[in-house]
Design brief:
2 copies of one chain form a homodimer. The first copy, chain A, is α/β, with parallel strands linked by helices and 305 residues long. Chain A is built from 13 helices and 8 strands. Helix content of chain A is 52%, strand content 12%. Chains A and B meet through strand 7, strand 8, helix 8, helix 9 and helix 10 of A and strand 7, strand 8, helix 8, helix 9 and helix 10 of B.
């Protein structure tokens, strides 16, 4: 099938590339700056100069557009597409938007005669290689139309799922990130105890490596922790400021709204907030180091997880 | 090499079996009750009727004994062995003892002319099949003598490590369990939000399955959570009482002693304690269900993790 991808950041580029290299799909790409468009063209994508150009490349018929943009500009971009696309088009918000806003936006798209799918995506910088996992919300018919694209992007057997009405894909992704924050916190606290407890000069990377061999805590996050500690046992060059993108906080807000206790998530958020106030220790350094490993995040800046 | 295994519970039996089936090792087994001894003999082990009998089967020379016993009887059993074994013997405490007590016990064994290794072991009920991972503390020479046995029990490449002086193996295993408590708590809170948040009847097992495909939270614990939810989406037959074996609490005590913040671990322990006071919800049911999956724990009782 034919699909446009707008937003060739870290994740968007991988999605465009994986689809462009798949022989059953044609990919049209749009991006604010020209460099990434050129890169995507090298992978086999077709460049569009504008939304109008992209729509023309669909033969002025119904379009399917995958938006992979920061949450704060996604809604305005959807609005622009809505003024241009033929009715019956499908817009996909593949970014990390707040599911509460996704529901509102979907109603607006629906009122204009098209459809909005929300697709939460995880897989970090390794998704291109291993396949992403994808959490889909929105109307079932649009999901079925886009399913061949999901199959091309994900690993076999169960790596994508349509969870239900609009917002549910972003909701499941949001909870994933909430769990991620807490799991990282668990690891960071543990390694901190290893480092500053009674046994001095313990080999932390060796502990992480042993734990990756069929222990109960075997996990991708621990693998990344072990890799970070192997490269830099003292995490010397990491200042331990831990950013966040909102998803953990939204998860906690939802928990509070529905009366669900989430004390470990609260602890993870508090630790990150305190790190930004200068409460830096070995655990916050490790959080920053792990975060950098999975997302290509800047060690001390913003990014997507 | 020749080794005796005392204590054929869940973990001890798998260790004895894996070694007995390994052609380079001879295994002598001891157990309070006769049934497990008979089972181990079927795997190729040799039954000993008593400690004296076991020592005779070593030709009355130095022995290597792997004790896989509950922490509260291990010390007394070590004392008994000490009165019987030739000097230069190696006793291995493979159970989950408090590292602070392990250090004291090791001094006593050393004073009697033998050596005590502490080996923390993880791998749950799957260790026999996949190989265990093992965290070793104690004198280096005894570690090197027993290394062929560790190689037989663990997966290739980095699944065991000698961390240092006496107690360090149990210490690293203790921290592993502390991380495990918090990681499970992270998952349990997240699934609780999925279940009781804004989207009713979300397929929780499908979420867990998607997350197992290269998401950031891919982990053995999430795999077990997904499996539990797949079998019983409402966790109907689980009453949500979550036991613990002390290791999480010891980790927190150590953190406090050394001034290391561990708020997520505190949250996990508090949740378990509250569950035993009757504060049961979907998250505590999931904790109990995961725990049962990895350890063969009774759903509401005690066990080893």
């Amino acid at each position: 099938m034919k699909i446009a991808v707008q937003g060739l950041g870290r994740m968007g580029m991988q999605i465009a590339r994986k689809l462009a290299e798949h022989q059953e799909h044609d990919v049209i790409v749009l991006n604010r700056s020209a460099g990434p468009v050129q890169e995507a063209v090298e992978y086999g994508a077709v460049a569009a100069q504008s939304k109008e150009d992209a729509i023309q490349k669909f033969g002025n018929e119904k379009v399917v557009v995958w938006l992979m943009l920061p949450a704060d500009i996604t809604d305005a971009q959807v609005d622009e597409w809505l003024t241009l696309v033929p009715k019956g088009s499908i817009l996909i918000n593949g970014g990390n938007s707040d599911y509460r806003l996704t529901k509102v936006l979907a109603e607006k798209v629906h009122a204009a005669g098209s459809s909005l799918l929300d697709i939460g995506t995880s897989g970090g910088v390794w998704g291109y290689q291993n396949g992403f996992c994808m959490m889909v919300g929105g109307d079932y018919q649009s999901f079925k139309i886009t399913e061949p694209v999901l199959q091309a992007l994900t690993a076999p057997e169960g790596a994508y799922h349509h969870f239900g009405e609009s917002g549910s894909g972003h909701f499941v992704k949001m909870v994933h990130n909430g769990i991620e924050y807490s799991m990282m916190q668990a690891l960071a606290e543990g390694y901190h105890v290893l480092k500053e407890g009674p046994y001095k000069n313990l080999d932390l990377a060796a502990a992480g490596t042993v734990w990756q061999h069929h222990s109960v805590i075997t996990s991708w996050l621990n693998e990344l922790a072990a890799a970070a500690l192997n490269e830099s046992p003292q995490l010397e060059n990491i200042d331990g400021y831990v950013a966040e993108n909102g998803e953990g906080r939204w998860t906690l807000e939802t928990a509070q709204e529905y009366g669900i206790p989430a004390p470990a998530l609260q602890a993870a958020l508090d630790t990150r907030a305190a790190s930004r106030d200068g409460n830096i220790n070995f655990s916050t350094k490790l959080l920053a180091a792990i975060r950098n490993k999975f997302g290509g995040h800047s060690l001390n800046g913003e990014g997507r997880e």
